[in-house]
Amino acid sequence: MDKIPIIIDCDPGHDDALMLMLAFGSGRFDVKAVSTSAGNQTQDKTLGNALKLLTLIGQRVPVFRGAEKPLHRELIIADYVHGETGLDGPELPVPTFEQESTPAAEGIAHILEASSEPITIVPTGPLTNIALLLSTYPHLKHKIKRISLMGGGIFRGNMTPLAEFNIYADPEAAAIVFESGVPITMCGLDVTHKALVYAEDIARFRAIGNQTGTVAAGLLDFFSKFYRENRTELHGGAALHDPCAIAWLMDPEMFQSKSCYVRVETQGAYTTGATVVDFYRVLAQKPNVEVVYDLNRERYIDLLATSIAALP
Ligand SMILES: [Ca+2]
């Protein structure tokens, strides 16, 4: 099977870490580059975390530093979930390599330009870098096969009652991405709050016995604390958001989704950062997003376990 060419834009972040393990460990992707967004933590920290994680899993691809803050707003971070470092919990290795000198949007543009085939972009943080890419290099849109992202939701939010963190952090950037005309897959809170990882799954990752499994388990132990304390309706499960955006590319059949017209609210009194999903097609507009809302959780955990086992 041919590997799927992708570029990952992330803000590690505990669930971003598991997303990277899935992307690299699955063997299904030709990862052209990783760029970092400021989101779960500051740009300095998410960039450092990406370099540490790639060092841990023995992968060396170009890493690009992304924007320091959202397009028009001040940076908000999610240290209440991810801790002071953005990846609190286990010990991580000192990076064995450095980021490229090119900024993210420019670096991604060069890769798209040089590629003979369209590349899928997988953003799992705020969409600042991807909005900069699309607005600075609009002639390269046709080189983007799809944007498979974690963000948004149909009926709920986790920052405000209707807005999810990644979209809320930079709604103007998200609006640019959703209005770009590039095909989008949106793994929002509807599916990611069913992509639960429980204590027994964490024990399974730890029992793999390699360094990746040990770190994955340590990260998820820390990450689960927030969910056990604040999302009791998940019954001890932690919502493992970001790997969904990769898993959908591997096996869309394990998910349920619907093609919908989606816009991002940037000015609402109560709804800024909401993804407005026309689920029942009341506007009769052409769908621009494949909205993912359910998955086969057991298969998702199996994919993660297999991928972690294939890494150092
Ligand atoms: Ca993330």
Automatic annotation (TrEMBL):
PANTHER family: INOSINE-URIDINE PREFERRING NUCLEOSIDE HYDROLASE, URIDINE NUCLEOSIDASE. GO terms for molecular function: purine nucleosidase activity. This is Pyrimidine-specific ribonucleoside hydrolase. Keywords: Glycosidase, Hydrolase. GO terms for biological process: purine nucleoside catabolic process. Coiled coil: none annotated. Residues 6-301 form the Inosine/uridine-preferring nucleoside hydrolase domain. It comes from the Bacteria. Pfam families: IU_nuc_hydro (PF01156). InterPro entries: Inosine/uridine_hydrolase_dom, IUNH, Ribo_hydro-like. Transmembrane segments: none annotated. GO terms for cellular component: cytosol.
